[in-house]
Amino acid sequence: MKSVFYQLKKNLFFQVSFLCLLVLQAACSIAGADTFVPKRVISLSPVITETIYLLNAQDLLIANTSYCNVPEAAQFKEKIGSVTQMNVEKIISLQPDIVIASSLSRGKQIKILDNQKIKVIKIKNPKTFVQMCDITLKIGKVLGAEKNAVKIISKAVKEVEKIENQTAELLKKKVFIQIGMKPLYSANKDSFINEYIKYGGGINIVENEKTGIYSREKVISQNPDIILIATMGTSKKAGLIEKQRWMSFKFLNAAIKNQIYVLDPEFICSPTPVSFAKGLHEVAALIHPGLD
């Protein structure tokens, strides 16, 4: 008989439920204990900032990066530089209790903060839905918002599970999702964007590639049923122009069926459990129209 841990690894949703259970147990074990909750927090990435707002802990956030613009209120927080180049002197002057850094934060600058006795929590950018949930739990625990984190994740898991169950027995359609233009870039199996297609009842034509770099010729040879365009760092107009470019290949199944769609990249490429569930609902409805 296979172990419980094997089954947890095999099933995404059991794995997240297991993480939630661990957090609940931890919360019970420290109930009534003296735990430090920071009152002055600085975020060094958009994902971290969005998660802080998601946890309803934005009152603790005193500063973030110039790229933190979701939700809209995040734009009005004090700015400490970009994701990759922070203003260390300004951070020190703000006297934060905790700085939450991303994998893109520069090691030398983090070391300066460490030398100034400023506590730094490092968060990796999530590549999967499970990792999004894990990061939300971690940040929730740091900010004293474990209960909110568990509620958020539990709801997102139920929504994702519902869609996966709905699409499980449906005919799998070939899908290409474009997230870059020059070079043409998509998502292989190492990205949560691939999970949109997988759980949404499609087959990602780029899934087994070593990288996300692809070519228009390869897309044409694969002849996908659906093309989704969510190019980061470009305007909606650029996405519409790209759509017309794909539509010009009259023999493409996606062009014949008029199933080439421009998506909001800020929404689709935002890796939190809540945005993933919403994005999955949108993508699944495009792959299989008529889903609830």
Task: Please provide a written account of the structure.
- The chain is α/β, with parallel strands linked by helices and 292 residues long.
- The protein folds into two domains: 4-155, Nitrogenase molybdenum iron protein domain (Rossmann fold, 3-Layer(aba) Sandwich); 169-287, Nitrogenase molybdenum iron protein domain (Rossmann fold, 3-Layer(aba) Sandwich).
- 47% of the residues lie in helices and 12% in strands.
- The chain is built from 13 helices and nine strands.
- Strands 3-2-1-4-5 form a five-stranded parallel β-sheet, sandwiched between helices. A four-stranded parallel β-sheet has the order 7-6-8-9, with helices on both faces.
- β1, α3 (46-54) and β2 (61-64) form a beta-alpha-beta unit.
- The radius of gyration is 21 Å and the shape is elongated.
- Residues 1-12 and 28-34 have low confidence and may be disordered.
Estimate the helix proportion, in percent: 40-55%
Mean pLDDT: 87
- Structural class comes to alpha/beta
Shape: elongated
Contiguous runs where pLDDT drops below 50 for at least 5 residues: 1-12, 28-34
Adjacency order of strands in the biggest sheet: 3-2-1-4-5
CATH class (first level) name of the largest domain = Alpha Beta
The main pleated sheet reads as: 5 strands, parallel
Rg estimate, integer Å:
21 Å
Strand percentage lies at 5-15%
Number of helices: 13
Give the SSE order as H and E letters: HHEHEEHEHEHHEHEHEHHEHH
CATH architecture of the largest domain: 3-Layer(aba) Sandwich
Looking at the structure, the CATH topology of the largest domain is Rossmann fold
CATH superfamily of the largest domain: Nitrogenase molybdenum iron protein domain
**What is the count of β-strands?**
9
**Tally of structural domains:** 2
Q: Distance between the terminal alpha carbons, to the nearest Å?
A: 37 Å
